[in-house]
Amino acid sequence: MATGLGYASQMGAIRETVFGTGVTAPLDRIPFLSETLVDTVKQIESNALLGTPGRTNSYLGSVPVQGQVVSELRYTNKSSTYFCGSDLLIAMAMHTQPHATLTQWALAANYNTLRLYNDCDKFFTLGIGKGVSVWNFISCFISKMTIEGGADENIKCTFEITARNINKADSPITLANLNSIAAVSGRAVTFLDGVLRLGTGAAALTTTHRIGIKKWKLELDNKLSDPDFTTFDSATTPASSTNKMTILPVRNGMREVTMEIELARYETTVGQAMEGYYTAGTPVQADFIFTGLDTDLATAATYKFSLPHLKVTECKSNIGGAEYFPQSIKLRAFRGASWTPAFPLKLIDASTAIVDEFAVEFDTERTAQLY
Asked: Most exposed of 90, 93, 234, 318 (fewest Cβ within 10 Å)?
């Protein structure tokens, strides 16, 4: 008898191109920590008054499929044609355009650039090996993404997902598909791999702009529509159950990008500068660069998060007792050129200014474009 064991579980993902059509043979292994994806089968109860206090029946309604996947951020590792990392899901959350359009190679290295895209049109098949069977989540959209960490932690990514439907019977991704990428592992990105720099843009960010922080969080909210259900349309027939699956999710509002940092201690130089940015509404820019130097990597690997247009929206330094107290700062990211600093943040090849709320660049073993 097969038994579901967490340590034996595997997760693979592959981009789809047709909504509702799952794809087999993923090339990407997701280093996940937990998941809460579930199908909620709605029961429609009858309230008819038929001379008895007992309900007589219920009927099947819609089946929304939602939940979270929590993974480690890893310096993507390659084995043969397979990869292990979270960069594919980050690209799906950002709806990065495929191929050369927004994927940039620079400096004859493996620098790969992920940039935000206006349309929410990137979705994927997610296969989770649960021991008993492989559960397939078809046409997954990422509504929210949170990347965060603190001292003595690995950086983790939380993806809030809405899927069109679920297949719990090994299709299209099979156990053999997941086993084929099982040899790929990679190294986790730790919080202390990182260096945060923040400044007003009056000068290029350098080592003098480094800020020692204790916690960091970056959050993208795509404002994706909730699962929505309709009667059969021209693409479905009454013999199918597709009207119990959500129609195509769309962006349903203006996306939001925020960053939060916590300073271990409220101190003069940085603390008062943050308060000044807050009260004056001063625009700032920031980047957070992680570099992995461990010997399990063939070469040093890098992740870079750049936020070119930020404003401080909250700045707290509350006292909770006799001990020293921290300072917590929340910042909101904006898009566009309403603020043009003397030294705008640019992509790693130093040629293209970043206009979106943020961009992600990485130099890892990802030697092929994501999709």
From this structure: 234
